[in-house]
Amino acid sequence: MNQGIVVSDLHLLSWRSDGDDHFEDLAGQLREVQALVLNGDIFDFRWAIRPHSETVPEAIGWLESLRDRHPHLEIHFIPGNHDCIPAFVDAVKALDGITLHPHLCFLGRNLFLHGDAASYPMDQNGFRKFRAAWENDRPSRKSQARLYDLSDSLKLSELTHHLWFRGNVAVRRIEYHLEDAAPGWRDEIDHCYFGHTHMPVHGYEKDGVRFFNTGSAIRGMYFTPHHFTY
Questions:
Q1: Beta partners for 18?
Q2: What Å distances lie between residue 87 and 14, 42, 50, 136, CA to CA?
Q3: pLDDT digit string (tens) for 142-167?
Q4: Are 56 and 37 in contact (CB under 8 A)?
Q5: CA–CA separation, 39 vs 7, rounded Å?
Q6: Is 218 exposed, middle or buried (0-12, 13-18, 19+ CB in 10 A)?
Q7: Can you give the pTM of this predicted structure?
Q8: Using CA atoms in the order 121, 206, 217, 60, what is the torsion angle rounded to 10 degrees?
Q9: Burial category of 32 from C-beta neighbours within 10 Å (exposed 0-12, middle 13-18, buried 19 and up)
C-alpha cells in the first residue's frame, strides 16, 4: 500500500496566511510518503493584492520548487475557488511532474475535492456557474485585504464559517453534489477529503463513507493535514 498526505487552504500569497510555515513543518513527512494531494486554495489570488502577472509566476515557481525538492512524490493538484483562475490553471497543466484534476480526484478508495460545492446545495451545473464567477476574479484592493486580515485576527471569519457550515451541513451538501457529479461514488470510495470550510473534520462517518476536512493555514485557524493509503 502506498501512503499519501492531503492538505488544503494554505492561502499562500495572502497576508493572512501562515501556510509557508505550516507546510515547511511537513517536509520530513513528505520524504516518507509517495503522494501529496494539494486540495484547493493552496494559493489565494483574490487576496494577494498584487496583479496576476506577478502572482501566477510566483505560484508556479512554488510548485516547481516543491516538485524538485521531492522528486519521488506523485503530486496531485485540485484547484479551489481562490486558485482556479485560467492563467494559473493553464500553467499548472503545462508543468511536468504535477497532475491537475479540475474538480475530483480518485486515488484508490479515496476521493478528494476542494469542497466549495458545500457553499450551498448545488448540482454540477450549479457548481460550474459558481466557479465561473471565481475564474474571472480579480485581486482585492489593499484596503479590502487589510480589513479581511483584521476580521481574521478578531475571529470574525472563523465565526462566519462556523455559522455557515454548522453541524454537518458541509458533508450533506457534498453528498448532494456528488450524487450528480459522480453517480455511484459511494461504491467506489471509503474516504472523502475536502477543504474550503476551514473547519477540521476527523473521520465523520455517514452511510459507510468517512469524511475528513484538512482545516486552514489562515492565521489563527486550525491546519490539519491528513494521511491516507491507496
A1: none
A2: 18, 15, 15, 10
A3: 556 555 565 666 555 665 666 667 77
A4: no
A5: 6
A6: buried
A7: 0.93
A8: -70
A9: exposed
